[in-house]
Amino acid sequence: SLQRAEVCAYFHRFEEAEKMYVDADRKDLAIDLWRRTGDWFRVINLLRTSASGDDSLMQLAWTKIGEYYAERNKWAKASQYFAQAKNYGSLAECYYMLEDYAGLQNLVSLVPEGTELLETIGSMFTTVGITESAVNCYLKSGNIKAAIDTCVLLNEWDQAVTLAEEHSFQQIEGLLTKYASHLLESKKEIEAIELYRKANKHTEAAQLLSKLAETAAKEHGNPMLAKKLYVLSALEVEKFRKKMFDMPDKEGGTRTAAQTLDTLMQHDNATVNSRILETSWKGAEAYHFWLLAQRQLYQGKVGDAMYTAIALQKYEEYLDPEDIYRLMALTAYHNHYYGQCSKAFIRLENLPGLSDEAKKGYSKLALSIFTNHAPKDPSNDLNRKRTTDDYICIASGR
Q1: Contact present, 193 and 205 (Cβ < 8 Å)
Q2: What are the C-alpha distances in Å from 232 to residues 21, 190, 199, 213, 271?
Q3: What per-residue confidence (pLDDT) applies to 391?
Q4: Buried b / exposed e across 59-70, counting CB within 10 Å, b at 16+?
Q5: In this structure, are residues 91 and 119 in contact, taking their beta carbons and an 8 Å threshold?
Q6: What does the alpha-carbon distance between residue 224 and residue 95 come to, in Å, rounded to a whole number?
Q7: Angle CA(234)–CA(235)–CA(237) in degrees, nearest 5?
Q8: N or C: which end of the chain has fewer CB within 10 A?
Q9: How many alpha carbons fall within 13 Å on the CB side of residue 119?
C-alpha cells in the first residue's frame, strides 16, 4: 500500500496518497507529502489529529501560512498565524503595516532583552515619531547610543540629555552645541531657544531671549515684545535656580551643608559668567514702566506719568537715556514740576554721544521754558519720599 501511495503521489493524486498513508498508520509520510507540495493547511490538519504532534513543525506550518497571506498583503490574517507561530519578527512587520502601534508595543514585552529584533522595532517607532516606545526598545536591546540618537532625531532634547547623563554619554553636549550654533548661524533664534528649553539648558535659553529682547527694542522699536521676551528670559532663570537648589543628593539622602554650599557656588559662578541671569527681571521692569508711563500720559494722568518717568532713571542700562529724560522733562513740565524738568534738561544736555546740534536744541528749549518758569517744584515731597532703593508699585509707578 505504501508503494501504491508513492505511485499516486508521483501522478499528483495527492489525496489518494494521503488516504493510503493514513490507512497504513503512516501520518508522518502524509504530513511529509503535503509539506513537499507546500500545502501547509493540510499539514496543520494532520498534525492536529496526530497523536504525537511536532511543535516545531506546527510552528513552521503557522509561519508558512502567515507568509502566504503576507505575500498577498492580507496583514491582519497573516498576523494571526505569525502570533500562533510565535514568529515575533514577522508579527512586528504585520503590526507595522497595519499601523497597529499598540500591538507593536505589547509585542516588545514578549521579546527577550538584547535581541536584534528590538532594534528593528525601535526603528519602526522612530519612523512614525513615537519617541518613548522607540527609546524603550533601544534601551531594552542595550543600544544606548541609538536611543539618544532617536531623541535627537525627533527633537526630544530634554530626554536625550537625561539619557546621556544617566549613561555617561558625553557626546550629546557637543552635538547639542553644534546644532544650536547651526540654528543661530541660520538666523533661527526661536528654534535655538526651543532647542535649549527642551534640553533643560535654561541659562543658554535665557541669554538668547535677552538678546532678542534687546534687538526687539532697539532695532524694531517694539517695547511690548521686548518686555515679554525679558519675562520669558527671567522665567528660564527661575527654572535654572529651582533646578540648582532642588537637585537631590546622588545617593538619595538629605543634602549636607557642604552640598548646599557647593550648589550656591555653582549658582554664583553661573551668574558671574552671565549678567543676564541677574538682570532679566530688571529688563522686564524697565519696559513695563516705560509702557506704563506712555499709557498714563496719553490717558491724561500727567502726575502718575511723571512719577513713573522719574522711576525710569534706574533703568538707563536697558532704555535709551535720551528717551528717559525727554519723557521725564515732558511729564514734569505738564505737571508744573519745573525742578524735575530742569534736572531732566541738564541730563539731556550732558548725555555722552549726543550730537552738538541736538544739545543746542535742548539748550534752546530749556531757555525758552525757564525764562518764564523758575526751576522749582511746587512741593518737596517728591525728593523726600523717593530714593533709588525704593520699591516701585508695578501698577501705578509710584
Answers
A1: yes
A2: 83, 12, 16, 10, 17
A3: 64
A4: ebbbbbbbbbbb
A5: no
A6: 52
A7: 65
A8: N
A9: 10
Residue where the block lists cell 493510503: 20
pLDDT of residue 256: 54
Task: With H, G, I as helix, E, B as strand and everything else as coil, classify residue 380.
Answer: coil
Q: What pLDDT, on the 0 to 100 scale, is given for residue 214?
A: 87
Sign of CA dihedral 236, 239, 244, 247: negative
pLDDT at 21: 64
8 and 16 Cβ atoms separated by less than 8 Å: yes
Annotate 219-236 with b (16+ C-beta within 10 A) or e (fewer): eeebbebbbbbbbbbbbb
Residues of the chain with pLDDT under 70: 1-5, 7-12, 14-31, 33-34, 38, 45, 47-53, 247-278, 381-391, 397
| Span 359-369, pLDDT tens digits | 999 999 999 99
Q: Using CB atoms within 10 A of its CB, is residue 208 exposed (0-12), middle (13-18) or buried (19+)? A: buried
Q: Are 90 and 67 in contact (CB under 8 A)?
A: yes
Grid coordinates representing 43 are 499539514
Of 136, 141, 129, 181, whose CA–CA distance to 163 is shortest?
136
* Cβ neighbours, 10 Å, residue 94: 26
* Residues 107 and 87 sit within 8 Å (Cβ to Cβ): no
Alpha carbon distance 217, 319 (integer Å): 9
The residue whose grid cell reads 532697539 is 218
* pLDDT number for residue 116: 93
C-alpha–C-alpha distance, residues 48 and 112, integer Å: 29
- Would you call 113 exposed, middle or buried from its count of C-beta atoms within 10 A (0-12, 13-18, 19+)? exposed
Contact (Cβ atoms closer than 8 angstroms) between residue 17 and residue 33: yes
